[in-house]
């Protein structure tokens, strides 16, 4: 079975990308397993080796928790060919995972930092009432209480730097995906991405792409969005982040390498 991991910072669109893969009949999709009780601290307790990664993937195939399996469960073929899982935490596992041979592809989805922060700012379960965005936007001290967390502008930069370095080491196995390009031309981008993971576009996937981009759910966690999130981030923060020289250089590099 082909194994694929999706990584990206919180509020970057990884849930949507995961569900685009989940829509495929040949894909078993698992949502943030390392954050779920079912697989909590899997590698912390066992170490990260070829064997423990293989055991992890075998356990994912037999996952039972509703959190990991998600609510959207489209029809699948009798013998799926791909196992896809996604995480917005544990980014420092990306390099050790790719150093092993048990993970075929790593897909890293990145989004402009001002839009990531803006989406976070408007997600009630992520940015709690009473928090000060001017205190939180850079290092997210109220959110990054564990080393596995990657919230705030500084962690956005750190994460993209990790992904770019990993792409340089494993250009054939690591794929960078621009959220903005995926939004602008979802079918074309997804078809190219599927080709790099040995999947073909199917009518079921096309139908889901149409549904997810033509229906507007107000739930901050919904993958059905026909409208962009309005910019409500304070202008001073949005302007600083959008024009940060280091961030612009990282985006330019990522855009030059993206699928």
**Roughly what is the average pLDDT, rounded to an integer?**
96
The helix/strand order is: EHEHHHEHEHHHEHHHHH
Number of strands: 5
Q: Which structural class do the helices and strands define? A: alpha/beta
Distance between the termini: 23 Å
Into which percentage range does the β-strand content fall?
5-15%
Shape: globular
Report Rg. Answer: 18 Å
With strands numbered from the N-terminus, the spatial order across the biggest sheet is: 2-3-1-4-5
Taking pLDDT < 50 over at least 5 consecutive residues as the criterion, the unreliable ranges are none
Q: Figure out the total of helices.
A: 13
Sheet with most strands: 5 strands, parallel
Helix content: 40-55%
Report on the architecture of this protein.
- The protein is α/β, with parallel strands linked by helices.
- The protein has helices at residues 14-22, 42-46, 50-61, 66-69, 94-99, 113-121, 133-136, 153-169, 179-184, 186-196, 203-214, 235-242, 245-257, and strands at 2-7, 27-31, 82-87, 105-110, 174-178.
- The protein has a five-stranded parallel β-sheet with strand order 2-3-1-4-5, sandwiched between helices.
- The protein is globular.
Which helices and strands occur, and which strands form pairs?
Layout: E1 2-7, H1 14-22, E2 27-31, H2 42-46, H3 50-61, H4 66-69, E3 82-87, H5 94-99, E4 105-110, H6 113-121, H7 133-136, H8 153-169, E5 174-178, H9 179-184, H10 186-196, H11 203-214, H12 235-242, H13 245-257
Parallel strand pairs: 1-3, 1-4, 2-3, 4-5
Helix pairs in contact: 6-12, 8-13
């Amino acid at each position: 079975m082909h194994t694929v991991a999706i990584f990206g910072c919180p509020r970057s669109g990884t849930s949507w990308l995961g569900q685009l893969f989940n829509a495929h009949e040949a894909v078993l999709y698992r949502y943030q397993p390392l954050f779920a009780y079912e697989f909590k601290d899997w590698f912390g307790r066992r170490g990260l080796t070829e064997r423990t990664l293989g055991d992890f993937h075998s356990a994912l195939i037999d996952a039972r928790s509703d959190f990991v399996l998600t609510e959207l469960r489209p029809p699948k073929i009798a013998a799926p060919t791909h196992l896809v899982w996604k995480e917005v935490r544990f980014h420092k596992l990306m390099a050790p995972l790719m150093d092993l041979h048990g993970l075929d592809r790593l897909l890293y989805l990145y989004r402009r930092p001002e839009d990531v922060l803006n989406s976070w700012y408007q997600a009630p379960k992520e940015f709690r009432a009473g928090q000060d965005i001017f205190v939180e936007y850079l290092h997210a001290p109220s959110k990054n209480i564990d080393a596995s967390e990657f919230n705030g502008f500084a962690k956005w930069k750190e994460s993209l730097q990790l992904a770019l370095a990993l792409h340089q080491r494993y250009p054939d196995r690591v794929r960078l995906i621009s959220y903005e390009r995926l939004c602008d031309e979802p079918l074309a981008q997804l078809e190219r991405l599927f080709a790099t993971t040995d999947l073909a576009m199917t009518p079921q996937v096309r139908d889901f792409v149409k549904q997810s981009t033509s229906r507007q759910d107000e739930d901050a966690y919904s993958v059905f969005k026909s409208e962009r999130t309005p910019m409500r981030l304070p202008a001073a923060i949005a302007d600083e982040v959008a024009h940060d020289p280091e961030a612009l250089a990282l985006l330019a590099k990522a855009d030059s390498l993206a699928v």
